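We emphasize that the prediction below concerns an isolated chain of 909 residues; any contacts that depend on oligomerization or on bound cofactors are therefore not represented. The input was used exactly as deposited, without trimming of termini.
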Amino acid sequence: MAHQPKAYKKFVATAATATLVATALVPAASAAETKSFTDVSKNYKEAVDYLLANGITEGTSATTFGTTGDITRGDAAVFIARALKLDTANAKDQGFTDLNNRVAKAVNAVAEAKIASGTSATTFNPDAKITRQEMAKILVNAYELDGKGTSNSFTDVNSNWDEYVDALVKTGVTLGLTDNLFGATDNVTRGQFALFIFRAEHLTPATPEVVSVSAINGKQLEIKFNKAVDKDTVITKTTAGGDIAGSLVDGVFTFTALKKADGTTASNTVSADVATGSLSADGKTLTVSTGAGVFEGNYTVSVNKGVESADGQDVPAFSTLIYVKDEVAPVLLSGNASAKTNTNQLTLVFSEPVDHTGAVAYIDGTPATLSAGSNANELTVTSSTAIDAGKTVGVQVLNVKDAAGNVIAPNPSNTNVTVLANTTAPAVSSVTVTGEKTFTATFTKPVNSATFLNNVAVVSGGISPSSTAFTVSNVSADGKTVTFSTSANIFANAATFTGTLIISKEVQDNAGNKLGADYSQSITFNKDVTAPAVSSVTTDSTNKKVLVTFSKNVNLVGSAAATIAKVTLINSNGKVVALDASATASIVNNNQLQIDNNGVALAAGTYTVRLAAGAVQDGLTENNQNAATTQTLVVKAPAAAADTAKPVVTTNTTVTGYNGASTAPAAEQVLTYTVVDSGSGIDINSVLSLANYTIDGKVLPTGTYITTSGYSASAPTGTVTVSLHLPSASISKATTSSQLVISNLKDLAGNVITPAVTAALAIGEGVAPTLASVNIATGDNTTLVTAFSEDVTGVTLAAFTVTLNGKDVSSEASFTAITVGPDKGKYYIQVAQSYDAVLGTVFIDVNGDADYDAGTDVSLATGVATPPTATEVNFTSAAVSNLKVDLDTVTSITDTQGNLATVATKVVK
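Result of the prediction step, given as a token string:
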């Protein structure tokens, strides 16, 4: 993929808590990697998790990210190239002569994209540290940030760097160290660079999308969007049709439990149909809670078409793979209770949803009863005796578990709960007339709606007053605002009705505190005499139904047939278009008159709609009816049937270029699959994106590339054969049961595949073994311990050249392969020393003639009167000034996979 501006890039991430093994893989670091970093604080965690999940970088070791270590120019280039998905494989050589293989392709790609430049025409200086001002330029070029209209006030930033620093300040990617100092020449750490990339990646994008999916625990997922979404497109508004309150919108989300390579199900089944959701205040985070199911194992999570942003944009379909293994114990966070005088119930709040089955509770040492609370992460503790307001009690719970079976930590857990005195009486804070016969009353605290029965009325009439009862028709979510209405005819022949609203002192809050005194105020209702007016006339998507929308709720005046008779359609030629003889009329959505033309579609064109008076009425006191009106109706040709079918992927288990154990793989191992979409056709860019593939939850090996056959841009509906070319030299471990996961492939209509998982794949290891180390043995100065990078066979002394003080002394070397003990798999090398009694010289007899020959043999000591007791060279002796070992004959040395070893040199001293 060529370099593109930020607004057009699509990145996928995962955040996983450090203690919860739950990671989104698109592609992703393994859960173990994310969990094990010991040097990542909470300030850097989200950024580091994001970089790991998107394959942008790795840690400096299995347990460290290297957060506080300075980042080099070469590593920064690798970060940027991966973040932007630059085409590193095809980047042109930029002429830098100081690049190693690890960074070369990334540096060439970054330089080609004019994101960063070399320190000269031929050097990039990849090992040099990067400063904050250099970082500013790289980020601005990479993400096309604009600093226009901003002028930084830093005294240490000169004109060469001002525009770049201005852009970072304007966008909030980073600020200064102080109000006056940017730290322009300070080095940037790996942790800081991770933060800067993360922030640049998450600047407000042009189009909405799913950012990440991750598990909070075994019962809950968190789906993050980059923009606020329309709540009604993800969570149902009502419980009609048997939906659970707050349930997910039907068909929008799917959770699929994946299978093991042997075909058996590896994960619990969890259904989106019985899951519920809650949307964060900013509309960007959807928390999904399962019904009866528990997430454990591998799942594909799909967000299908149908989600919209708050500003009405479609959110593209999205699918990803997550791994969930909840190993985090729930924690008792707090307890609370309140009462007017006393209570026997306390509420305990936990860190996650909990199960009280088999759990035990005590209040001040006395057994108590546990039951489910009002929220999934709460439990109610019921005492056998009342607890007075103001009293503090000790609560202990034992064996409370989360859905995954993790027992509370510590177990048991204790907390103190004070029963707060709730003696404040509720009060009316405002009353607002909201309709012809409705008003709302807002109270200072939540109230018990049942106590309003027979306690709310409007009194009118003077000497002989009459009382009109009002009843509750709605209560707000917080319990403070109550809507009241009456069906009585309060107006008689008048246009208004004025009386005294009385809310009885018997009204109570949820603790039983009464209002204290009757509340009264004058209140006036105005008879609604406004006729319903037509707002618009449209058709449904099939053009088989005409929808007349009114300014208020309406109902039919007469029968459906009588209503049909009041509707006349005239086409653009002036011809009256007769409705079908079986057409019907009804009210939908409370304020729409629907004319159903019995399955007969109106032809495309412009119509005049004449609606006679008295077709609908508002059902209020005056039964206000519509006036006669003439409206324009534009009927468009029906859109072609939407393509909702997902592309179909067919996988196989053949790996070309690998014949099994003990056989070195070819330079490339090729995995092949096919994908076809008979509707709109395959989006080939999704096929070619390496980010859409993982093997065993990991990004594909470095250097992997993709080729296709059978694809035609002019006819994209054909079957496409896709080949993933894995460089064997980047595969460090052979496997017999790997799984390739293919996700986020889509067609041109935006339908995303259900992630495909291969059965067991056999993939060969292709990393050549080499000499890893040569060291003088601890406690034995006459022995060199040689170790290879992995287990090898075929090692003999002939493979090595030992050079001591500039002379090849291999002829005097001896060799031992170690097969047991802590040095198993290593090789010992010793060099024999000789003694020339005539000259009194200790030496290495290079030419093997038993006499010391100056210039040929290696002298170790002179003037030695008696032969030394040691027969081997002491490598730590001052006489040994330099020593190296070359592995230079490798034709017989192979690893267990059959990969031939590579030559190497190790300098010992």
